[in-house]
Amino acid sequence: MLILLLTIILVGFGASTAYLIPWSLLPDAIDKDPEKPSGIYTAWMVFIQKIGIGLSVQFLGVLLSLSGYKSSTNCLSSFQDLDQPLTAIITIRLCMGLIPSFLVLAGLITMKPWRNLDFKSESVGP
Fold first, then answer.
1. Which long-range contacts (CB under 8 A, 24 or more apart) does 22-30 make?
2. Is the pTM of this model over 0.85?
3. Within a domain: residue 123?
4. Alpha carbons 54 and 28: distance in angstroms, whole number
5. Which of 23, 66, 69, 119 sits a CA distance of 20 to 30 A from 58?
């Protein structure tokens, strides 16, 4: 039980980082281009994020269908419906663990050469 709790905590840290990195880069992008209103950047970010979420859910559904996942429309049916083929279990594990890890790693590798050396923060206040 302790191992499960530690695993959940570690996965939570990783997932929160993956969700927060784009939002913490948004103010830098807005400050770098002061001629455009900040709402444009925020709107595009939310729009692209929603498209990505929609496409990933669709892709997951297609992969689960191809892997032989058995869906149930009756939650109170017998527990026989809960048995999934090994291919479906492997697909779920890949889609929920390995593939997101590779995508976060690819994002970090992409952002590594991005240097913001000429950016000077201005103090806000009186």
1. 22/49, 28/116, 28/119
2. no
3. no
4. 27
5. 23
Run of H or E residues at 119 = none
Whether 118 maps to a domain, the answer reads: no
Containing domain of residue 94, as a range? 2-68+83-111
Task: Write out the two tokens for 74.
Answer: 């009756």
User: Is residue 59 one of the residues assigned to a domain?
Assistant: yes
- Alpha-carbon gap, residue 116 to 34, rounded angstroms: 16
Burial of residue 34, with CB atoms counted within 10 A of its CB: 0-12 exposed, 13-18 middle, 19 or more buried:
exposed
Structure tokens at 102: 């590779």
Residue whose tokens read 């297609």: 62
